Amino acid sequence: MSTYTCPKCGNVESIRPAAKLFYTMNEVADLFEVCRMTIHRDIKRGNIKAIKFGKVVRIPAQSLKKYLAAT
Q1: What is the three-class DSSP state of 52?
Q2: b/e string for 3-16 if b means 16 or more Cβ within 10 A?
Q3: Helix, strand or coil for residue 30?
Q4: Are 4 and 13 spatial neighbours (Cβ–Cβ below 8 Å)?
Q5: Radius of gyration over alpha carbons of the chain, in Å?
Q6: Model confidence over 41-59: pLDDT tens digits?
Q7: Integer Cα distance of 37 and 70 in angstroms
Q8: Per-residue confidence (pLDDT) for residue 37, from 0 to 100
Q9: Do the beta carbons of residue 63 and residue 28 sit within 8 Å?
Q10: Which of 26, 32, 43, 60 is the most exposed place for a label (fewest CB within 10 A)?
Q11: Quick check: pTM over 0.85?
């Protein structure tokens, strides 16, 4: 978390980074500390819902929450 100081009034506010809506397979593999291929298999099996944008695969944050709740 970082802070922001207003140049006009001097107020200091903490800034929270925005939550991610989509994750890459590599990011999910790093989060779960598993191989990227494990995530790929779970997507193929339907355990994790993923969205394909052209050739790029993204995993919605909601899908990860559902996956974690089911396991």
Answers
A1: strand
A2: eeeeeeeeeeeeee
A3: helix
A4: yes
A5: 17
A6: 999 999 999 999 899 999 9
A7: 20
A8: 97
A9: no
A10: 26
A11: no
